[in-house]
Write a structure and sequence with these properties.
The structure is a homodimer of 345-residue chains. Chain A is of the alpha/beta class. Chain A has one domain: TIM Barrel (Alpha-Beta Barrel). In chain A, 47% of the residues lie in helices and 12% in strands. Chain A has 16 helices and nine strands. In chain A, the strands form two sheets. In chain A, strands 1-4-5-6-7-8-9 form a seven-stranded parallel beta sheet. Chain A has a two-stranded antiparallel sheet with strand order 2-3. In chain A, helix 15 links the parallel strand 8 and strand 9. At the A-B interface, helix 9 and helix 11 of A face helix 9 and helix 11 of B.
């Protein structure tokens, strides 16, 4: 097996810097669009054969160093009864958002059975991968899930979310405890089914001050990471806009910290500490630039990583639909080519 | 005159920490809503009597230490021909966005005459204020203006904006030069008419990496600050999500750095350097919390400022429409009460 990704997660030397992309199975690929013409996002997520097929699409096409299961960070909320729908122009919408105490009480408790389809998808994807590259499982983190649950969809200023957090911290912690329980079930299903690493997506946690992260979020992410039946499989924690949160986020108990492009990788790594691996951090929009500009940016990030063991190349957020596949190919090639080194060097 | 605000901008000792709020004339006030029932935002902005009246509304009601002229950061784009409209559910929309080279060539050059209404609004507001508190003028910064011009409105990932920046840096710099020219004209009109401080709003610049800020934005903000006929009136530079950009933003040439809530005020001030004043940085959503929670947060920020000369209390972004006026009143009271000190102490 190409184990560069897992070795880098464990901060072991690698022959080339491993690279994968968030949302690497996505709309920028014609193969994915063909599937989505016939099936909704939720259908693909909940039909193990389709989820596994889409998971493999980028692996068949590009020399990536890891696969990530096709799913959605919001699936735990759907299982809890919030009625998720993806609307083309608006993104995810919850028809039963969480606004008052009673909404929290009515959340459906979930267990491993609720996510049986996710386990099956992982098993099929592992089978199809046949150990070519490792398979990553994932879930949304409780803050990010809460923001969608409370706002009823995407948000710009997280008004209702913070209103609950600041005015009703009792409700907030009850909600985050329930969300965390669901996340733990969901991730453990994936781990038992064969996920070889997991990533917790706290995509919107960067809207919080460090004090608020510490008070309202950190206890819950800590509980999740410590409750995973991970037996040594790497745990990645990712968010955007997290420059000031990184020293607190590392206390959550992850092995790898995901970085977005707003921080310099070298400065962020020094801040977090070299006893953690880091993953990132190219601005996803760079992939729409001319190839020489992409190459210049890849080079810059590799220079900041400075050959230190424990760097996984990735974007600072997911690939966008308008990115040319040629640029994805070229980016992977640049990462591998510009990072060649002797193992143990 | 109550000159606490101007003294703090100059890092001189004050008897109490001065406080004003971004968007302090806004929808949370019934007096403002009454005016807006009869007039659109653009009508209020472009009718000097109305703009001055709205500017004074929060000053008549609250013991604020500064007034800010009622206007919109996007007015320079409207003057350049992009056809601005505020749509209730969507926010600002430009009917003629800037997408290709020809769009940039077609931008209408502006001069002081284009902003005659803004000068008149400042004069009327100064008259009505009768030196009770200083009056702040403002404009959008070129990056933030470019993002609205190119996207045609608000955006989540600034896709088209960065596509131009990364793929056509020649067009980008031409556009930012033209936008900067308009901003300089607009701010100088306000300064000549009597604005006693000015603030440049780079609200969305935090979506950039430090390297990109330095390469694509800083030269333009530097040019603006150095071209202002400011003769010693304080210049404030504000953005959100700027934690990693602050050391570069200070090179733009401002006297006061606006901070959002994602940074701790004490750490940010140490990073920027104590030869600049700072303004901020309460999360605007805290104003929806119970009063004791607001008080706790005000106290925390004042403790971080630690009595050092050069702190202006503000929110980390504008007041939101659902904030109770009682909480605005209480916040001002807490700032004044908890920061009482002997001048020169």
């Amino acid at each position: 097996m190409n184990d560069r990704f897992l070795r880098a997660c464990r901060r072991e030397p690698v022959d080339r810097t491993p690279v994968w992309f968030m949302r690497q199975a996505g709309r920028y690929m014609a193969e994915y669009q063909a599937i989505r013409k016939k099936h909704s996002i939720l259908e693909v997520c909940k039909t193990p054969e389709l989820a596994a097929e889409v998971t493999l699409q980028p692996i068949e096409r590009f020399p990536l160093d890891a696969a990530i299961i096709f799913a959605d960070i919001l699936l735990p909320l759907d299982a809890m009864g919030l009625q998720l729908e993806f609307i083309e122009s608006k993104g995810p919408v919850f028809h039963k958002p969480v606004r008052v105490e009673n909404d929290i009480q009515q959340l459906i408790p979930v267990d491993g059975e609720s996510f049986a389809y996710a386990g099956e998808a992982i098993r099929l994807a592992r089978q199809a991968l046949a150990d070519r590259v490792p398979l990553i499982g994932f879930a949304g983190a409780p803050f990010t899930l809460a923001s969608y649950a409370i706002e009823g969809g995407s948000s710009r200023d997280y008004m209702r979310t913070k209103d609950m957090m600041f005015a009703r911290p009792d409700l907030w912690h009850t909600l985050l405890t329930k969300l965390s329980n669901a996340v733990i079930e969901y991730l453990n299903v994936q781990i038992r089914a064969g996920a070889q690493a997991i990533q917790l997506f706290d995509s919107w946690v960067g809207c919080l001050s460090p004090d608020d992260y510490e008070e309202y979020v950190l206890p819950h992410t800590q509980r999740i990471f410590s409750a995973l039946e991970s037996k040594g499989i790497p745990k990645i924690y990712f968010g955007t806009g997290t420059a000031t949160l990184l020293p607190l986020m590392r206390k959550a108990g992850c092995d790898v910290m995901g970085l977005d492009w707003r921080v310099r990788l070298d400065e962020a790594w020094a801040t977090i500490g070299y006893d953690l691996a880091v993953q990132g951090n190219l601005d996803p929009l760079i992939l729409a630039a001319p190839l020489p500009e992409i190459k210049r940016r890849v080079q810059r990030i590799l220079a900041q990583a400075n050959g230190r063991a424990g760097h996984i190349f990735n974007l600072g957020h997911g690939i966008l639909p308008h990115i040319p596949v040629e640029s994805v190919d070229a980016t992977i090639e640049y990462v591998h080519q510009l990072s060649v080194r002797e193992v143990g060097a």
